[in-house]
Structure formats: C-alpha cells, structure tokens
Design a protein that fits this description.
The chain has 3 helices and 2 strands. The chain is mainly α.
C-alpha cells in the first residue's frame, strides 16, 4: 500500500488479537521509584539502606515480570530511575560510613596514649 505516487510505501500495521491485554504500567515500577527516592534522600543518615535494598529487590522482580508479560507491562523508565536513585542512596550510605570511620580513627589518633599521671608521680 502506498500513500501517493513517489512516496515511500507504508508498512501495514499489525492487527492486535482481541484477547491480548492492554498495555499497563507496572505498579512495582512506581514503588521502585518511590523507594529509590526515599533511599537517596535518607542515604546520608544511613537510613537509606533499607529502602534501597527493597527497591533493588522489587526492581529485579519487576524486570522479570515485564519480560514474562511480552511487552504488555510498561514503566521501564520509572524502574530505571528508581534503580539509579537506590544505588545513589547506597553510595551515600557508604560515603557517610567511611566519613564516620575516618573521623573515629583521627580522634583515636589524637587521644593520649597510656596513662596520664600527675607530674608528682614517678
């Protein structure tokens, strides 16, 4: 089928089977995004570990379900952004733990070594 002489032929559109489900956004994709956002916001306070872990676990499940659905589950963009935010939250947790460890080592190094006796004790 062509639209007019001299134009590129238009590919015929495939008709959808009436029993095929309508494409729908995966609900887990929104949950992954929300948990990833919470992880990124609370990452410096070490509270981001739990939502980030749950978000990554749900993202894995959502990807598996989307693959099994044959393209009828959408929301890959939300899923991708949620995973990135979850990894960002975990990175912020790691940065804060390293900073606390460095501060603890520096304070320990500045502490006097041994007993601090008064000047009149031999």
């Amino acid at each position: 089928m062509t639209t007019a002489p001299g134009q590129v032929p238009v590919a015929p559109q495939e008709t959808r089977h009436p029993l095929d489900p309508d494409p729908a956004r995966a609900t887990k994709a929104r949950a992954v995004f929300a948990l990833g956002l919470m992880a990124a916001l609370t990452g410096l306070f070490v509270g981001g570990v739990v939502p980030a872990t749950v978000a990554l676990y749900l993202a894995r499940q959502a990807r598996r379900e989307a693959f099994a659905s044959g393209g009828f589950l959408t929301g890959a963009g939300w899923l991708r952004r949620g995973e990135r935010l979850a990894w960002t939250g975990l990175a912020l947790v790691a940065v804060s733990l390293v900073a606390v460890a460095v501060i603890a080592v520096v304070r320990l190094a500045e502490a006097p070594f041994g007993h601090d006796y008064p000047s009149n004790v031999d």
